[in-house]
Structure formats: C-alpha cells, structure tokens
Design brief:
Elements (H helix, E strand, L loop, with lengths): L1 H19 L10 H22 L15 E11 L2 E10 L17 H12 L4 H12 L5 H9 L1 H9 L6 E16 L1 E13 L4 E9 L6 H13 L4 E7 L5 H8 L4 E4 L1 H9 L7 H12 L4 H15 L4 H14 L7 H7 L3 H17 L5 H13 L9 E2 L4 H11 L6
Parallel strand pairs: 3-6, 6-7
Antiparallel strand pairs: 1-2, 3-4, 4-5, 5-8
Length: 409
C-alpha cells in the first residue's frame, strides 16, 4: 500500500513539474517520451554494467581490458511514438543489449499493435497511416508485412497443436475469400469449431479449399484432427459439403452427422430482406424447438402459409432439408440448445468477415490464412480463440453423457 502511495505521489509530482515547465504529456518532447527515454537508458546502462562486471567510474575496471566507450544515438519507435535514446558502447564492441537490440528500431509492443490492428481488418496501408497520424512515425508497408509474416511460424504451431481427446460437438463451416491468382476467384477457407467437455469454444484449425474438394480432402483434414489427439466426436454439424459425411464416419465411426441448424437458419435469411429477419426468426424458433416431428411439421405449415407466398424459395429450402433436419428433434433440449447456440459461432464469423471485407482480396491462399489466423489470435489472450459456449453448460454436459453413454469423459 505504501508503494502505491509513493508511486502516486511521484506521478503527481512529475505531472506538476511538467505543467509548470509547459511540457506536454505526449509528443516528441513530451513527459511520457522523456520518461521512456530515461527508463530505456537506465536499463541499457544496467546491461552494460552487467556485461563489463563493474559499475560506471568504478576503479575496479582499470586494466580489465574492456571499458565504456561513450554512446551512440538511436531512435526507436515505442507505443507512445518515436523516442531518441543514447545507447552505451564498449571499447571491444562486444556489448549486445537485450532490451533494445542492435539494429532494432521498434520495441516489441509496436509489433503487437501492428498484429492487433491487422487482426481487426486494417490493411498495411491503413496501419501505416495510423502510425503516421497517431505516433507521428513512418512505418512502411513492407515493414508491416514483415511484422505480420512473423506469425506464420506461430500459425503453423497453432495448426498442429494437440487437441482434446473428446468433443461433444464439432461445427464445420466455410468462409469465402477472394484470391488473386491470375484472376480473382472466390475460394473457401474451412474452419472447424469444437465445443469442449468444459463448455468452451475451441477453433481446431483453418484449411484452404477450392470448392470442389471431396471425400479425399475431408478424409485428410479429419485424419489430421484425429492425429492431433481427437479420439472421438459425438456430433458433427455441417452443411452440404461434398464427401464430408462419409469422411466423418470413416474417421470417427460413432459420430453422428447432423445438418447444421445454424446454416439452415442463415441460408433462410439469404432469401429475405433484413427488415423481415427478426419476425422470421421468431416464426422459425417454434419449428426447431418443437418437442416432436409432428409438432415441428405443424409449426412449419404455419410458417409456410405466412411466408411462402412472398418467399417460396425459403419454403423449398426447408422442405429439401427436412429429412436431414428431423433427427435433430430426437435430442434432449439441452443438446439442441448447444447446437443452436449461434453467438459463439457468429462472433467468430463476424470477426473473420470484418477482416476479409477490409482487404477485398488476397494475393495468395497463405495471405488469406494469415489474415484469418490473426483474427483468431485476437479472440482471446491465449490466441486459441477459446470462449464460453453457453452459460448453462452443466445440464448440457449431463444430456451428452446420457445420450452418448461412455463417450464423454
């Protein structure tokens, strides 16, 4: 408590002195810049003392063979803007500072700011302009690209990290991006999102496809997931992806393939203007929350009577998907709630769409994957994209344990 009071008093004293002297808080000669300069130079002097083995002006250093040899000026970009510092030198030129390395022009925090802005969908040009506007510092587009390229190795590690042994539910979705390969074409990036036994969302990975992938492609993807430790999946929710159901049952023999209700609802809205979405959503809910197939059919007839004359394509969509939708009604209401919980998936998709929309198109598949990984990385501090799936998870876990007896540990 005393330390906090002393720090507060020191901060107040520094602010008062700065105000008396007409020193701004921010800016090239601002108070924060001077404090940053003093802290960095003090840390560098301490590193030099450790390197030489004796304090500055200490007689013990006479005849040691190496000594301080003045300083050299250097400007580094920090979170508060450019700061000019004096870096100590030694006569042997063997000093290798750690806090501000040789040839380093940015503190680590700047790289994190670049990655954060990139994850939010800003292009390299917009990030460069942001640094010029906010920090008064020039950071080239090439430098920003090199900073974001540093995450490629991290992305590879993430894509190959060990996964949980069991997932009650795995959703497989597609995000479409524009790739400029000779000509600009739409290509899908597939994302697998698992619900853990602890009720958390876990983004399992990202895979680039060309839209015509079949069972062989999906077998490779799912085998990769299995080899990373996933021994069993109870439910896999997907929608109309060629060869996927066959691959699922080849890799996880006991897995149930379920038409994704979220996809069905999302596709419904594609045929209607936004002004009708809320009302239509209220009319759809009694269908997929009905206790039996007969009750769901009655609610669907009511829905079709109301909306069919205006949007016949929506009625046809549900009629075509009905046989694949019906098994969903056999599940416990708690399991249904997990499958229909759109927030955890849509929050991911919204972040992905925002990042993609800002760029328009990508030069390569790797650039698109890097963009989506940065968006994933920003979803939580661990970079794994974890989040709570549902508040009422324990009832759902009990329902899964009973429905899929012996498989949920």
């Amino acid at each position: 408590m005393a330390d906090e009071v002393n720090q507060l008093e020191l901060a107040q004293q520094l602010l008062a002195q700065a105000k008396e002297q007409g020193i701004e808080l921010m800016g090239p000669n601002g108070l924060l810049g001077q404090l940053t300069k003093n802290v960095l130079e003090t840390a560098l002097d301490a590193e030099m003392t450790e390197h030489l083995g004796y304090e500055k002006n200490d007689p013990a250093g006479r005849g040691s063979g190496n000594s301080r040899n003045g300083t050299r000026s250097k400007t580094v970009l920090t979170e508060i803007g450019p700061v000019e510092i004096d870096v100590p030198r030694d006569t042997e030129s063997s000093f290798e500072p750690k806090i501000v390395r040789k040839r380093q022009r940015r503190l680590t925090g700047i790289d994190e700011i670049v990655l954060s802005l990139s994850a939010k969908g800003l292009t390299t040009g917009e990030i460069s302009a942001h640094f010029q506007d906010i920090y008064g510092a020039s950071v080239s587009k090439d430098t920003i690209s090199r900073i974001t390229d540093k995450v490629l190795e991290e992305m590879t590690e993430w894509q190959n990290r060990p996964l949980d042994r069991v997932y009650p539910v795995v959703f497989i979705d597609a995000i479409h991006v524009k790739i400029r390969d000779g000509q600009v074409t739409n290509r899908p990036i597939y994302v697998a999102i698992g619900v853990t036994v602890n009720g958390e969302r876990d983004i399992l990975g990202l895979w680039a496809g060309d839209g015509g992938k079949g069972a062989k492609f999906w077998l490779a993807v799912l085998t990769e997931i299995k080899n990373r430790g996933v021994a069993d999946v109870c439910l896999v929710a997907c929608d109309g992806l060629k060869g996927l159901p066959e691959a699922i049952n080849t890799v996880w023999e006991l897995a149930v393939v379920q038409t994704c209700i979220i996809h069905l609802i999302r596709n419904t809205f594609r045929f209607a203007p936004r002004q009708h979405w809320d009302e239509m959503s209220r009319d759809l809910k009694p269908i997929y929350t009905a206790p039996t197939e007969a009750a769901a059919k009655e609610r669907f007839v009511e829905f079709a009577t109301k909306w069919g004359p205006k949007y016949p394509a929506i009625v046809r969509l549900w009629e075509n998907a009905w046989s694949e939708f019906v098994p969903f009604l056999d599940y416990d209401v708690e399991i249904r709630r997990v499958i229909c919980s759109t927030n955890a998936i849509e929050s991911v998709n919204a972040r992905y769409r925002r990042a993609i929309r800002a760029r328009g198109h990508f030069p390569t598949e790797q650039a698109a994957l890097k963009c989506l990984y940065l968006a994933t990385r920003a979803l939580d501090p661990t970079g794994r994209g974890r989040a709570r799936w549902a508040m009422r998870w324990k009832p759902a876990l009990n329902a899964f344990a009973i429905t899929f007896e012996g498989r949920i540990n």
